[in-house]
Amino acid sequence: MLLYNIRKRVWVTAGTIVVVMMIVQAAPAENLKHGEELLIRACASCHAVGRTGESSHKFAPPFRTLGQRYPIESLEEALGEGIMSGHPDMPEFKFDAKDVGAIIAYLKSIQQR
Ligand code: HEC
């Protein structure tokens, strides 16, 4: 009887761990999707946002190539404070901290080596 109870507890614990892991894994996926949506809305008129495709604006670098020039984290401040430099015909964008996190996570996920 005691052995039975211990086994049951082990299974319940294992089940809880699996459920927690599923929740933890779903959260970053949501975050990436949110980042992608923000970029599509604000930037896709000029930049290629995804893993493939060309930018509509011929001088706008595809986002998947940004990491070749500087670390993606270095964009964090610019996105949060609205100081995007080097955009001749680009309006200024500003995102709140949560959105910046999602955008950075998404950009990291699509970088080419
Ligand atoms: C109206 C067109 C347009 C829109 C909209 C636009 N960009 Fe750009 N972006 C450009 C152009 C053009 C360049 C290249 C500028 C250059 O090289 O002088 C550029 C360059 C960049 C660079 C590289 C800057 C550098 O110094 O290497 C980043 C990062 C960037 N854009 C991010 C964004 C983000 C994030 C958004 C959306 C929030 C966005 N852009 C929206 C036109 C645009």
Tell me what the structure shows.
The chain has helices at 2-43, 76-81, 97-110. It is an all-alpha fold and 113 residues long. It has one domain (2-110): Cytochrome Bc1 Complex, Chain D, domain 2, CATH 1.10.760. Helix 1 packs across helix 3. The structure holds heme C.
Average of the residue pLDDT scores: 87
Tell me roughly what share of residues is in helical segments.
40-55%
In the CATH classification, which architecture applies?
Orthogonal Bundle
Q: Could you tell me the radius of gyration in angstroms?
A: 21 Å
Low-confidence stretches: none
Bound molecules: heme C
Strand content: under 5%
Instruction: Report the end-to-end length measured between terminal Cα atoms.
Output: 57 Å
CATH fold category name: Cytochrome Bc1 Complex, Chain D, domain 2
CATH first level: Mainly Alpha
**Main sheet properties:** none
Structural class: mainly alpha
- How large is the count of helical segments? 3
Could you give the count of β-strands? 0
- Coarse shape: elongated
What's the structural domain tally? 1
Topology order in helix (H) and strand (E) letters: HHH
Task: Offer a quick outline of the entry.
55% of the residues lie in helices and 0% in strands.
Key features?
0% strand; 3 helices; Cytochrome Bc1 Complex, Chain D, domain 2; 113 residues; mainly alpha; binds heme C; elongated
Furnish the topology, listing elements before pairings.
Elements (H helix, E strand, L loop, with lengths): L1 H42 L32 H6 L15 H14 L3
Helix pairs in contact: 1-3
Heme C (HEC) binds next to α1.
